[in-house]
């Protein structure tokens, strides 16, 4: 199906439009310029088609058509993103294959500044005339926006890089692995689960390849090939006597890697505790066997006694707490209120940063933003504004020192350049500020998780993500885990159920007293962090080593009133 769309967008600064105003103006601007068709997510293609890339010379030719057309209509700045997004999913349950899909979405988006305001349009008709038409529409939209503008866009300077490229450093392209091999692996996972007594088992492989080309009037022509993978399963057992059931999902992490992630290596495993954990290689068969045992333990686990505990949090759990209580509240657009209508604001207001002494956490807390970490979901060479990616401190020795910015936000913090946090989830989506990888640095002193546990008198050791809630300012929260173990006098004495900790962000991070060393450091993450209106998703990782938090309030989520 042929499709062409144009999307109105404007960003202003400090006196900026809020997102609800943006939505109102979208209707006004579009009604005055053109009537778009609804976009389709993509089309189903063969595996063979997915392995044939678009020629770089052709992408440069298309980009130049768009840039020249935009300038000819009065754009003072323009950038073009040509995106080919490949998504493959293999899904199974027990002894059968539930679904296999291989989808492609391919098109071009043009963003411009004209008369001091943003405009954006997109098309998946890739002929010369349609590309030029999309660029011209973006300029027309920008000029329409400028009539409602309070102040012009202030775009941080960015040098052009010429013709450059970047690729995820993969060993095995997941799209080249035969579907049969993937199905066989997942069905073997299911078989192992059922041998272990599972009543139900579902397993999945999610694979993504973003082939992205960026060009701008700054002089950049950037070709990137980005790969991500996520193997997962959920195992369920029931107690026939009570009718109760328990589940355990995979303790894998979605990664910015190829199919090599599923090639187990002993030196990438962390053993010796109640759960085998994995670094940059994952043994899905070993994990599902352990999961069957863990579910038996969960069915027999004793309820948590509410009270204050020292928490030992594994990275497979802590990543989500980092994401929600550190990653989101340090997004500058959220701090400024641009996300208030959808996802809330932030307690980390500019005055706290300006004070240069706001106590976010203890001196153990050093939070780093990093768009370059190998194996992470957010690793790219350049962001979707053509900014070369790097890393920077957000929290240093417990003090708030920075946020996350893009080119039209940098001046708000007095920065001379963007931090490279711009991303769009598709060629037909406008790029905006998205979270980089945000991670808790490991400790400097040699310390394993086993040694950390030895010094805990009364505590809980938590693994895996589970249910959570957090308020709209990212301040008050509650998190639970897939697996929770009681620690008494330095020893793990058994599994607990219904344990969740409650705190506010400052209180929690000020209770951080110890971090394991770099040998325990691992990544967790999400494929689909939601943000924006219209909504977009992004993939982001959060690293940490096992960390200890003292005197945290723990509740029993299974208790009933009355």
Main attributes of the structure:
562 residues, alpha+beta, nine-stranded mixed beta sheet, five-stranded mixed barrel, 27 strands
Summarize this entry quickly:
The chain contains eleven helices and 27 strands. The strands form six sheets. Strands 1, 2, 3, 4, 5, 6, 7, 8 and 9 form a nine-stranded mixed beta sheet that branches. It has a five-stranded mixed beta barrel with strand order 13-20-21-23-27. A four-stranded antiparallel beta sheet has the order 16-15-14-19.
Supply Rg: 24 Å
Q: Helicity range of the residues?
A: 10-25%
For the secondary structure, the number of strands is 27
Structural class based on helices, strands and sheet pairing: alpha+beta
How would you portray this structure in words?
- The chain contains 11 helices and 27 strands.
- The chain is α+β, with helices and mostly antiparallel strands and 562 residues long.
- The strands form 6 sheets. Strands 1, 2, 3, 4, 5, 6, 7, 8 and 9 form a 9-stranded mixed β-sheet that branches. Strands 13-20-21-23-27 form a 5-stranded mixed β-barrel.
- The chain is globular.
- The model is unreliable at 1-40 (pLDDT under 50).
